[in-house]
Amino acid sequence: MLQQTQVATVLSYYNKWLRRFPDFATLAHASEASVLHAWQGLGYYARARNLLATAGIVVNRYGGHFPHEIARMRELPGIGRYTANAIATFAFDQSVPIVEVNTARVLTRLFNFQKSVDCTAGPEALWKRAAMLVPKGSAGIYNS
Hints:
The chain folds into two domains: 7-66, Hypothetical protein, domain 2 (Endonuclease III, domain 1, Orthogonal Bundle), CATH 1.10.340.30; 101-143, no CATH class. The chain contains nine helices and no strands. The chain has helices spanning 7-20, 24-28, 32-39, 46-62, 70-73, 81-92, 101-110, 121-133, 139-143.
């Protein structure tokens, strides 16, 4: 919900969403129309459709339990590297980096990268360096 939406806006929707869809099974069995109706006002409706599709996969493939492995998370609709690593860090206490634009800017300066973070080689190098900095056992605090 927070992707491209301010926290203040999301707060009023979040609790309503969890009351309506308290678990993956409930969401997976909901109609797209009811999911989109619950999402109404947040915009970027692809996020709601991705959540619905992800819930179906989690229920059917993983027995209703969200996968702990980053590679499996990234196979789910709408979950890329940043989101998978954030979930791994905060939900499963895994020591992995979370690199977004501001972190990338700092790392680029810290490590004196000559390659742009916009090119293919740049971001991969940043993620590798960021991984070296994440302390074992306290990634959640570090990544906050």
